Please model this.
Amino acid sequence: MLDWLRVSVAKIQALFSVRHLDQEFAEELQTHVAILTEENIREGMTPEEAARNARLRLGGLTQLREAHREARGLPGIETFFQDIRYSLRMLRKNPGFTLVAVLTLACGIGANAAIFSMAQGFLLKPLSLPHLDRLVAIGELEEHDRNDTIRASPANYLDWAAQTGTLDFISAFDWESVNLSGVGTPQVAQGIHVSSDFFAALGVKPLFGRTFLPEEDQPGRDQEVVLTRSLWERQFGGDQNIVGKSVRINGRSYAVLGVMNDDCKFPQTVELWLPLALDSEARHNRSDRYLQVMAHLRAGVSRSKAEAEMSTIARRLSDLYPQTNRDWTVQVVPLRDYAIFRGSAPFMMLMMGATGFVLLIACANVANLLFVRATGRQREIAVRAALGATRWRLARQLLSESVFLGLLGAGAGLLIARWAIYLILAHMPPDLVRFVAGWDQIRLDGTVFLFALAVATAAGILAGLAPAFHSWRPDLNAVLKEGARTSSGGRSSHQLRNAFVIAQVSLALVLTVGAGLMVRSFRELLDTNRRFHPETLLTLRLVLPDSPAYKDPHHRAAFYDQTLKEFDTLPGVRSAALVTGFPFSGLMDSGTFSIEGRPPATPGLQNFAVLKDISPNYFQTMGAALIQGRAFNDFDGPDSTPVALISQRLARLHWPSDRPLGHRIRIGQQDSSNPWLTIVGVVEDIKYSWSAPSPEPAVYRPYRQTPQTYMAFGLRAAGDPNSLISAARLAVARVSPDQPIFMVETLDRAIRENTLPIAYVAAIMAVAGLLALLLASVGVYAVMAYSVAERTHEIGIRMVVGAKPAQIVQLVLGRGAMLMFLGFACGLPCAFGLARLEASLFYGVRADDFSTLSLASVSLALVTLLACCIAVRRATRVDPMVALRYE
Amino acid sequence: MTASKPDILQGTLDLMVLKTLQAMGPLHGYGIARRIEQISEDALQVNQGTIYASLLRLIQKGWISAEWGASENNRRAKFYSITKIGRKRLSVGAANWERISGIVGRVLQIADRS
Model:
């Protein structure tokens, strides 16, 4: 126990004074021998005999010293340090080689560490909740339906809570965007209604104040609010005495109970929490599944056990209430999966794959460099082998050198990663950060450090393996006999180096093609809406509060009418229009529709369309054309015939041969209670979602016939749209002083913000592609240059016997071209594979985009050929006389 | 507890070294080896070098300590002395040894009779 500890300490201490301890022990033995010899002489031996006897009785001084040394320290570690010291010496002796190798590895490791820290933020710890592993989300799932939004109806949730034996703090929540007024400018805040167990389930405590009490989620007692720290700081100036004060939410007064720290924000975008007060009607509602439910697994209960229990309860409920619950089961999923920014996993995989490829190219480069050096060191290795070093010892020496290189690369790589993470974080607009779960978790932490170390070690071993293995069987006789002539590596080493070059070229091809496709599709995405001049259109959004004043649709329409009028009179506004959501705004209203007189669509093949409610001058303000019929006008009001405009794409899909004008469509199924809408016109296609393959079919309705509670306004500016912002705010305040507006920005900026995920992926792929191009060309150059150097003698002879420079170029370049060709042959199929993968992830990417494909291939070919040419130039300058003397 | 044969022999040698140091005070390597030979009346002709392995083990465990000093002929020699921990371990070790050798002795006597 303690002895063991003391022995370890002693052994480790001994590592630091090997030489001193060796000397001491030698001296100690000497004294022993001396005393023993004197004794022997006293007993009558001759001096020689005495000394011999003394050494015999002691038992071999050298063996004693060696045994002592081994028992004293930690022999494994000592040789390890020896290897490291030796590696250091070798690396210092070749600073150029070391620099190139370390920089190459640093690029690879740095890129991987940066992407890993991103992936870690997004996928591994999107939430920093104390018991995240024990938290689950629970939702109802209709059998046969693979929908991934998991929700529950209030009555079912209450039954679960009453009957469960495996879950604690089962709690429900429901989103509501609220209008916050009474302090500063009115604001839209993201609120969620939560049951009183919500915070207990999360396991978080407020920064100060308190959270909801059980009786506070009763109707009538729910006028209370808990704020997030960021909202408290932004909107209330970090007022320390906020608790107990009242704020106005949707026009009603709420008392502030407490403030919650931001690091326990769940769900990600929340800004304030309100009690979830279910009235008696909601408590009996089984059919509307709109609540989100989460819970804490009871101690010792696994998720599958909880799911089994919930399924039993669900079966019981479906027996009791077949009308609403038949065919509905329950699923219990980890809250972590649920919180992950949807769709980020495949993007992260794509980027990690790309940087992984970059690292592989870097490894191939370093392996080649090591190879070249290993051939130069054959004699040294042979001598060491001849002196008795075991093969394992030699291979270990070479491997520890490359691992050491890898570790140096990791050091430099972490600096690169730090810089890269800084760039990644700096380009995210601050007002978007809160929408991306895990974004604030992206940083270089211990895990990333360990990851970099692991990657570096793996890279070092990978790069060193082939050269080390090659030195496994040095043919001592051949190498030592070869005299002064530098050996030219041998056949197998040539083949291996060629294989590395081929692998590099093919990996680089895959990456450049992948990067080219991403960049191109991103550019096209931005260009899609160029023709609408998004840079001069100021957009803003508002949500009418859920208050009696706006219950009547007429009042909503009147509010919009008045606001539009105010906007129209602002100086600097050419025209003002409204729409329920601008292109690429992230607001997607789509639904099914039916056509009068046609059979109902078969399930799964429904008529889907984007649904927008617009003001008459929407297309005019956007700059989109009317193709057939008429646009809406001021007479399309609540009392006139319900009308609709359809997009060209929808018209082509459903009326391929005749004119759609005059036909009637209905939102929803044929038997829906929605009114039939008469088609009065066909308009140009507008692409609303960047994740859709092509412009979606669209149906437009006049806003006065269906006034929604949310709306976006667009102000076409004569000059700088941003100069209109404060006037626009004032204009809204003139209509309704408490009405907040949000996302006030040009359409251009809104589009950029909404396409940010693909921008990030495109940028990172582009960097990976450029790195691949650079590393691969360096690799090709290195190998070609070395092969030219190796063949200097041969080239000299060829020139002496009459070869012309052109023939020499052909000789060397031919080999380079051959390698490149093989690399392309291997890389092209993989590049097609990656193109298809990207096409499945991003709708804008086409796997059959041959122009990008060939552009990427040609640029890679040019760069590698250039690398070859630089190497070849040296070959043509060979002076035969010098070359023949060249040793 | 299982101990392989060399462990038992090592342990025995360590115990003898400890006992010698406890009885004689500080001694150098040669002195210890010589002393063990004398007491065992030269029945135990150890390879004197093995003493040093034992001394290293004891030093590492902290049961003995070492100090440079002058030998009887004024030579520089390392003198070993038993530490407080060493004394404690010696008494435990010696008691164990007596118990085990007693048991072994009795068992061997039984074997003799039958």
Q: What stands out?
A: Residues 84-113 of chain B form the longest helix (30 residues). Chain B is about 65% helix and 15% strand. Helices of chain B lie at 5-24, 29-39, 50-61, 84-113.
